[in-house]
Amino acid sequence: MTQPSILLDGLPVPFVDGQTIMDAAMAADIFIPHLCHHPEFKPQGSCKLCTVKANGRYVSACTLPARDGMEVENNSPDLNDKRRTLLQMLFVEGNHFCPSCEKSGNCMLQALAYELEMLSPHFDQFYPNRAVDASHPEVLLDFNRCILCELCVRASRDVDRKSVFSLSGRGIDKHLIVNAESGRLADTDFSWADKAAHVCPVGVILKKRSGFAVPIGKRRYDVEPIGMQVERLAARSADEES
Amino acid sequence: MSEECFDAEELEELLRPVVERHNGEPLQLVQILREAQEVVGYLPAALLTATARALKLPRAQVEGVAGFYSFFHLTPPGRYRVLFSDNITDRMLGSGELLDRLCNKLWVERRKLSEDGLVSVDTTSCTGMCDQGPALLVNGQPLTRLSGERIDRISELIRAQLPLGDWPAEYFRVEDNIRRRDTLLSAEWPAGEALRAAIARGSEAMLAEMKLSNLRGRGGAGFTTAIKWESARRAACHTEADAQAGARYVICNADEGEPGTFKDRVLLSSYPDLVFDGLSVAGFTIGARKGLIYLRGEYAYLLPALRENLERRRRSGLLGRAVGGEVGLDFEIDIHLGAGAYVCGEETALLESLEGKRGIPRIRPPFPVTAGYRGQPTVVNNVETLCKAALIAIRGGAWFAGLGTKQSTGSKLLSISGDVEMPGIYEYPFGVSVEQVLQDCGAGNAQAVQVSGPSGVCLAMHEFSRSIAFEDVPTAGAFMVFGSHRDMFEVARNFAHFFKHESCGFCTPCRVGTSLVANCMDKIGKGLGTQYEINQIFKIHRLLHAASHCGLGQAACNPLFDTLQKFRPAYERRLCSLDFEPAFDLDQALAAARQMTGRDDPAAHFGFAARLPGVAS
C-alpha cells in the first residue's frame, strides 16, 4: 500500500496518520506561515496565519488532520493577502516598534511581515496602554509586543508544570497575566531555565542585561528569510529559542 | 464594599461553604465564582487566590476565567449594579435617553462607580426582553417596560437604598406575550407524559421516531437532531478516574444570547416540564444518566422556579433513580448558570464554560457527540428542540413530519420585536412567509426585518415574500422589525458594537476585526467616513468569513454586509465626498487643552470640527 498524501499547491506531500496539514508540510520542507504553532506543543489554531484552503474550504493547517487525496492551497495571492491583513491586525493591536526592539531580526512577527511583503500597518493603530513588568531579577516582560499566541502559557503549563502564564479578559481586552496575586512576575516561581522563557515568537519575554549581543543585521531572519528556514522551525526544541 | 473590608481569612470563611457545596470540584469554577460573588459583592484578588487554593488550580487560571465573563467583577461594581439592555430594539424604545436620565438623577458617570460605592450604571448585551423593553438588569434582576417616570422612581429607590425585594413587584413583571399558538404552545401534557411515552416505545424505537420526524435543531444551525442523538448513542465512552466513568451527557442550551430572541425564556418560564421531559427523553434515548441545563446569566431570575420544578419531578419519580418506575434507568438534571458571554451559546464554548473554563470555542473535530462534556459523548440541543423532541415522543415522528415543509418539519417559535403593534412569541409551521408574519404582528410600515438576530440575515421589502424555513430563510427565532422611519445604518452600527463586545478574542481575525469594523462604523457615523471605509468593511468581512475560528466571527460582519447591499443610501448620505479622511481627529485631541485654558472660540478649533454646526459656538 502506498503512503497517503495530500496535494499541496499541486505537489504530492506524503503524511502519516495523525499528522496535520502543517506537520505534513513541515516534514516536506514546505513553508506555511504561522505564529502560534510550535511543533512541540498541542496546536491551538488561534493566530490563523496558517489558514489554507483544503478541498475548497478555509481551514487552519495546524489543527486539521491531513486526509489522503486532500487538495490544499497554500501559497496563493488570496491566502497571502488574508495573511498580510492578519499581520497588520496584530501589528496595530499591540505596540510594535521594530527599530528599537531587542527581538528585531529574531522576531517571527517581523520576519513574516517581510516574508509576506507587509509594507505598512494599514489600519489605524490602537495604541493600547500596557505596562511592562520589570519586577523579575532575570526577565523583563514587555506586554506591548504580545500577540496572544499562548506559547508561553502552554510551555509553562504543559512542560514546566508551573502555569506561570494565563490569559484574562475577553475580545480586544484579552491580555496575558502571570500567576501571582500581585500580578508581578517576581512573585511567581518563573525562572530563565523554564521552557516558557524560550518560546515567545515575539519580544515579550526578554532576558535582562544581555541585549543586542548579536547586532541587528546579523540575526536569524536578517540572514535568511523565514520562509527558507522550515527545517529549523520544525526542529525547534527546548534548548533553542524560537 | 471597598477593598479594605475583607482580609484573606475572612474571605476564606465566606468561600468555604460555596466550595463545599460544589465538593471542591474545579469543573464547577464558574458556578463557584458566581456564588462567591453573590456573597462578597465582587471578586477581589485575595478571593481569587483563595478560590485557586481551595480548588487546587493555578491562580492565573482562576483569574483568567473571572476576567472572561461580563458578570464577574474584579473591582466593586456598587451595591446597585444597573445594566441597561443595549439591543437595537431597546434603543429604539429610548433606552439611551433613559440611561442618561438615570445617570443624571444619580449624579454618576456611565461605567463609573459612584464615589460612595452605591451604584454603577452601564449597558449590557440584549437581556431577552425585547417585547417588553426598554429593559435593564439591577443586581441581575430584570426590569421591563421602563419609562421616564419609572427611571425617576428607580433613582429614588436606589438613593433610599431600598432592598430590591421592597421595590414595586410590577417593575419586575415579565410577560410571556404569546400571540400565536401552534402544536408546541398549545401542548397541555402533564409532566412526565413524554418521558413515559419514550420509555414505552423503548430507546431504539424512540430514535426511529426521531429519524422519521426529521426534526432539525432550533438553535440556528439546523443540524438533524436524530443524527446527533444516534452518533452520541453509538460513540464509545472514555473511562474516567472518578465515578462518572462511562457516562454520556445531554445538555440543554439555554444560553439564549442572540439579540432579539426570547422564545427560550418563555419556554423555560411557562413550559419547563416540556423542556425537562425533552431533556429526559434525549437522555433515555442516547443512554445518558446526566442532563445539564446551561442557563444564561441574564435568566438567573428563573432559577428558583426551575429548581422547584426539578424537586417536584424528583418527588414524583421523574428524576433520580429508577425514573418512571424503570429499574436501572437513572437520570439527574443540573442547572448551570452562565455569567454574561454570548459566545457560550456556541456549543463547544458552552462545554468549556460548563467545565469551569473561559468560554472559548473548541477545535473541531472532534465534535461533542464523540468528545463533549468531560470528553464524553454529548448531545447539545436547544431548548425548543428538546420541547419538540418531547412532542415527538408522545405523538410520533410521522405526525411531526407532516407539519411544516418537507425539509423543515414542524413549527418554529419566532420572537418578534421592534416596530410592530403586538410584539411577542408567535408559533408558525415552517414555510410561513415573512409577509404573513408581518401582517399578523401588525408591522404596518416595515422597511426591513433582521431574521435570526445580528448573525442572521437582514431582509428588505422586496424579500418579504420569502419563507421562514431552513431551505429559504433559516432562523434561530429572532425577528426584529424596522419601520421605514428607522436608520438602518444605526441598526448595523449597534450590531457591529455587539460583536466587538462579545468576541471571545481567541482568534486574530475576530478579536481585531470586530474592533476595526466598529471603528469604521463610528467614523462613518461621525460624518468622517468615505468610500475607503466601505471598502475596508467589505475586506474585513471577507477575512472574518474565511479565517475566523467559530460562527461568531464568521457572522460578525453579516449585518454590515447586508445593510450595505440593501440600504446603501443610509451609509452614503453620511460619507464625506473625500477619498479619504483620517480617523485621527486633531480637534478632538485638543479638547483637553481647550478645557484647561477655558477656551471654546472658533480659533481654538481645527479642521472639520470647526466647520460643524454646533461646535465652536
UniProtKB/TrEMBL annotation, chain A:
One GO CC term on file: membrane
Required co-factor(s) are: [4Fe-4S] cluster
Pfam families on file: Fer2_4, Fer4_15, NADH-G_4Fe-4S_3
> What is the protein name given in its UniProt record?
NAD-reducing hydrogenase HoxS subunit gamma
Q: Which GO terms describe its molecular function?
A: 4 iron, 4 sulfur cluster binding; DNA binding; hydrogen dehydrogenase activity; metal ion binding; NADH dehydrogenase (ubiquinone) activity
Instruction: Tell me the enzyme class.
Output: oxidoreductase
What top-level branch of life does the organism fall under? Bacteria
The chain positions of domain 2Fe-2S ferredoxin-type read 2-78
Q: Which organism is it from?
A: Candidatus Accumulibacter appositus
Please verify whether the record's keywords include Iron-sulfur.
Answer: yes
Q: Which protein family is named in the record?
A: Belongs to the complex I 75 kDa subunit family.
Coiled-coil spans in chain: none
Enzyme Commission designation = 1.12.1.2
As recorded in Swiss-Prot or TrEMBL, the protein's gene is named hoxU
What keyword terms does UniProt attach to this protein?
4Fe-4S, Homeobox, Iron, Iron-sulfur, Metal-binding, Oxidoreductase
Q: Where's the 4Fe-4S His(Cys)3-ligated-type domain?
A: 78-117
Q: Output the GO biological process annotations, alphabetical, semicolon-separated.
A: ATP synthesis coupled electron transport
Kindly indicate whether the keyword Phosphoprotein belongs to this entry: no
From TrEMBL, chain B:
Cofactors that this protein relies on: FMN
InterPro entries assigned to the protein according to its UniProt record, in alphabetical order: NADH-UbQ_OxRdtase_51kDa_CS (IPR001949), Nuo51_FMN-bd (IPR011538), Nuo51_FMN-bd_sf (IPR037225), NuoE_N (IPR041921), Nuop51_4Fe4S-bd (IPR019575), Nuop51_4Fe4S-bd_sf (IPR037207), Thioredoxin-like_sf (IPR036249)
- Keywords carried by this UniProt record: 4Fe-4S, Homeobox, Iron, Iron-sulfur, Metal-binding, Oxidoreductase
In short, the EC number is: 1.12.1.2
Instruction: Classify the source by domain of life.
Output: Bacteria
- List the Gene3D superfamilies hit by this protein, alphabetically: 3.10.20.600, Glutaredoxin (3.40.30.10), NADH-quinone oxidoreductase subunit E (1.10.10.1590), NADH-ubiquinone oxidoreductase 51kDa subunit (3.40.50.11540), NADH-ubiquinone oxidoreductase 51kDa subunit, iron-sulphur binding domain (1.20.1440.230)
Task: Tell me where in this chain the NADH-ubiquinone oxidoreductase 51kDa subunit iron-sulphur binding domain is found.
Answer: 489-534
Q: Work out whether the entry's keyword set contains Iron.
A: yes
Among the GO molecular function terms of this UniProt record, one is: NADH dehydrogenase (ubiquinone) activity
What is stated as this protein's family in its record? Belongs to the complex I 51 kDa subunit family.
Name of the protein in question? NAD-reducing hydrogenase HoxS subunit alpha
- Which gene is transcribed and translated to give this protein? hoxF
